[in-house]
UniProtKB/TrEMBL annotation:
Keywords: Cytoplasm, Metal-binding, NADP, Oxidoreductase, RNA-binding, Zinc
Family affiliation: Belongs to the zinc-containing alcohol dehydrogenase family. Quinone oxidoreductase subfamily.
KW Glycoprotein (keyword) present: no
Protein name per Swiss-Prot or TrEMBL: Zinc-type alcohol dehydrogenase-like protein
Xref: InterPro entries: ADH-like_N, ADH_Zn_typ-1, ER, GroES-like_sf, NAD(P)-bd_dom_sf, Quin_OxRdtase/zeta-crystal_CS, Zinc-ADH_QOR/CCCR
Domain Enoyl reductase (ER): from-to ranges: 17-338
Residue ranges the record marks as coiled coil: none
PROSITE patterns the record matches: QOR_ZETA_CRYSTAL (PS01162)
CDD domains in alphabetical order: AL_MDR
Lineage, highest ranks first: Bacteria, Pseudomonadati, Pseudomonadota, Gammaproteobacteria, Cellvibrionales
Organism: Microbulbifer halophilus
Subcellular location: Cytoplasm
Subunit structure: Homotetramer.
Lineage top rank: taxon: Bacteria
Length: 342
């Protein structure tokens, strides 16, 4: 089958960083679905895994297949599969410890797969799984915000509101949880996008965020979701969080975080990593299936909207290299999706 893979970890400008390959039909386990991939989207995790690492000159013997966002049709099911049948239309982010979605057929554990929204096509659905799961887990599991509206009226600062995760997090926080959303955006276009997603106020994360909030007469916020440079914004977050407030980040830090800045406020800090449940086979792994199915219901009821903002056709190495280049540039709005095979 056709796939796009890598043998060496190279800068995206190198034409060998991602290459068109043919690989064998994948083997499946008893809990797996075999999915015919129709559309994929690109996330920062894709570029981070692909990028060269200092001092690492390793070479893969077999092409490594990346990609952790897909929508497609179930071709086959394992003996222990309970929730899906051949022909079902599904979407999922997958498992970072297994080969990814840059291929025509992919095995994926049914417990982390959701039914596609009935109102969306494959392109629109492929934009949602990784970012939807990340935003949902960050807001409702890590920050412990009520998805039923019990915390309605409280405030949240979402740093990096126009990206893939930000675009769905703004919607979930405003339209589902009923929070007052202050989102950061550094350009006019991204600000317009974030407002469209449901943000009430805008701040610029290129400036001092706490000062930006004070300019809006907002002294503190109940929650902060950091999707852009934890190191850069740490002091501003510690300053802006309300007493007994909660902060969550999805962005790795490079410098030690001074957690003592949160002590006097009894504030909470947590990480969100969407792959945790699949990576560690946690007992609640099937929760991701449930979340994706709930997102589908919200999409079909018109409560949420897809975050796709650019579609490339077909799925091949050249288009994926361009998508990686755009994502690495850090100026994308919403999600970039690729669909169709040559």
């Amino acid at each position: 089958m056709k796939a796009i893979g890598l043998y060496r970890y190279l800068p995206i400008e190198d034409e060998h960083s991602l290459v068109d390959v043919y690989v064998d039909r994948p083997q499946t386990s008893s809990r797996d679905l075999l999915v015919a991939v129709q559309a994929i989207s690109v996330n920062p995790v894709d570029t981070k895994v692909r990028a060269p690492k200092p001092g690492d000159t390793s070479r893969e013997e077999k092409a490594r297949i990346l990609g952790w966002d897909a929508a497609g049709e179930v071709l086959a099911v394992g003996a222990e599969v309970e929730h899906y049948a051949v022909g079902d239309r599904v979407y999922y982010a997958g498992d970072i410890t297994r080969p990814g979605s840059y291929c025509q057929m992919q095995p994926v554990d049914e417990r982390i797969v959701g039914r596609m929204p009935k109102s969306l096509d494959y392109q629109q659905a492929a934009a949602l799984p990784l970012t939807g799961l990340t935003a949902w887990e960050a807001l409702f599991d890590r920050l412990e915000i009520s998805p039923r509206g019990d915390d309605a009226g409280k405030s949240i600062l979402i740093i990096g509101g126009a990206g893939g995760v930000g675009s769905i997090a703004v919607q979930l926080a405003s339209k589902l949880a009923g929070l007052k959303v202050i989102a950061s955006a550094s350009r006019t276009r991204s600000g317009i996008w974030v407002k469209r997603m449901g943000a009430r106020h805008l701040v610029n994360h290129r400036n001092d965020l706490h000062r930006e909030l004070r300019d809006l007469y907002i002294e503190s916020v109940d929650y902060i979701l950091c999707l852009n440079d934890t190191d850069q914004h740490w002091r501003a977050m510690a300053s802006a969080i309300a007493p007994q407030g909660k902060i969550c980040s999805i962005v790795d830090n490079k410098e030690p975080l001074q957690l003592n800045l949160l002590k006097s406020k009894s504030a909470t800090f947590s990480w969100e990593f969407m792959f945790t449940r699949a990576m560690y086979q946690t007992p609640d792994m099937i929760r991701q299936q449930e979340i994706l199915n709930e997102i589908s219901r919200l999409i079909d009821r018109g409560k949420l909207t897809t975050t796709v903002n650019q579609v490339m056709e077909p799925i091949n190495a050249a288009n994926l290299r361009e998508a990686h280049r755009l994502v690495e540039g850090g100026r994308t709005i919403g999600k970039i999706v690729l669909s169709g095979w040559e």
